[in-house]
Backbone:
């Protein structure tokens, strides 16, 4: 699960690349029309076009159409990117060095360095061995390796820059992508939409399901659509030709009102649950709209029903309710980061949907 190599520089945006391919296609058409494919000049033209498209690398940049969607996805390395819903926060069994919140120790060291000697480590990306991406990787015979770059608290900026939440040893998530990458999954956007604050308002602020709050939250979501669209363009530009890019949405957290028979065993009231479900629908719509605007070939994976029958407040939940406890040494915060995140069973359910999409294609 080592980090991927440094990001390769391609020097061509997706629009520029498309223009070159179009120019090459016109050139081929002209030659074919004038000479026919049997003419010896064909090989020379093909070679010239490959040089143009690949920048001299010899990789013509056209995916092998003889491969099935699964074969394309598994022909190289798998790179898993995103936020806490992709890192596996809430699913336990965290990888070493990714659940160390020593901020309290660090503060005490600054005051009196002898009490906790050594160098406290701060990294709460919370990458779980139970995350859906780990299950996806283990369910196929990938020809390459698994590179896990998703991080709790992840925002779009973390794709381009060193981790903006001050997690140590976390460079830009795009650095995990190399010329050997054949599959990328990413779940990103929830933190950019401000869902952490939205959940807090529903827990602490009484009723959050007001018309004014709805307009505010939906506007915040809509404001991120173009940013996500550019992210998807950059993802496609950074990935090698033929790699598949799957954008994983967010699951519905609470049961539908008509499915609540004996009341919901949750800290969140039923009216707020229905309101939060609606905001989740809007968030998933915004992600799909961003894909449409991006003009890319990235694929959306709809996992909204992954937890159906096992939402927050049900008898056998696959997602954590508001949880209390100390995580990774953060003694000053009694609220667990597991709260409102899928547990190991939830990630297993999400993994099954992603696996099916890997097999079937867009």
Residues:
């Amino acid at each position: 699960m080592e980090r991927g190599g440094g990001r390769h520089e391609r020097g061509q945006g997706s629009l520029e690349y498309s223009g070159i391919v179009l120019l090459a296609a016109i050139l081929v058409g002209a030659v074919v029309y004038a000479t026919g494919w049997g003419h010896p000049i064909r090989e020379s033209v093909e070679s010239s076009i490959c040089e143009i498209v690949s920048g001299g690398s010899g990789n013509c940049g056209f995916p092998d159409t003889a491969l099935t969607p699964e074969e394309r996805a598994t022909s190289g390395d798998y790179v898993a990117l995103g936020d806490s819903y992709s890192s596996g926060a809430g699913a336990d069994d965290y990888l070493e060095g990714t659940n160390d919140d020593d901020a309290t120790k660090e503060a005490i060291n600054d005051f009196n360095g002898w009490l906790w000697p050594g160098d406290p480590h701060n990294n709460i990306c919370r990458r779980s061995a139970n995350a859906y991406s780990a299950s996806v990787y283990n369910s196929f015979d990938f020809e390459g390796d698994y590179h896990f770059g998703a991080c709790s608290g992840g925002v779009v900026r973390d794709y381009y820059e060193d981790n903006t939440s001050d997690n140590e040893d976390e460079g830009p998530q795009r650095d995990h992508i190399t010329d050997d990458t054949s599959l990328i999954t990413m779940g990103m956007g929830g933190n950019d939409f401000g869902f952490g604050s939205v959940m807090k308002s529903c827990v602490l602020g009484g009723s959050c399901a007001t018309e004014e709050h709805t307009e505010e939250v939906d506007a915040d979501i809509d404001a991120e659509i173009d940013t996500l669209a550019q992210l998807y363009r950059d993802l496609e530009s950074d990935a090698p030709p033929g790699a598949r890019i799957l954008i994983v949405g967010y699951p519905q957290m609470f049961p539908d009102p008509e499915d609540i028979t004996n009341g919901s065993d949750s800290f969140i009231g039923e009216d707020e649950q229905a309101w939060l479900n609606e905001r989740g629908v809007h968030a998933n719509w915004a992600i799909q709209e961003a894909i449409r605007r991006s003009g890319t070939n990235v694929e959306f994976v709809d996992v909204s029903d992954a937890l159906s029958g096992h939402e927050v407040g049900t008898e056998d939940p696959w997602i954590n309710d508001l949880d209390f406890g100390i995580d990774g040494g953060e003694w000053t915060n009694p609220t667990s980061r597991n709260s409102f995140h899928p547990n190991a069973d939830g990630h297993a359910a999400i993994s099954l949907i992603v696996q099916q999409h890997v097999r079937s294609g867009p």
Q: What stands out?
A: The longest helix spans residues 270-294. The two ends are 27 Å apart (CA to CA).
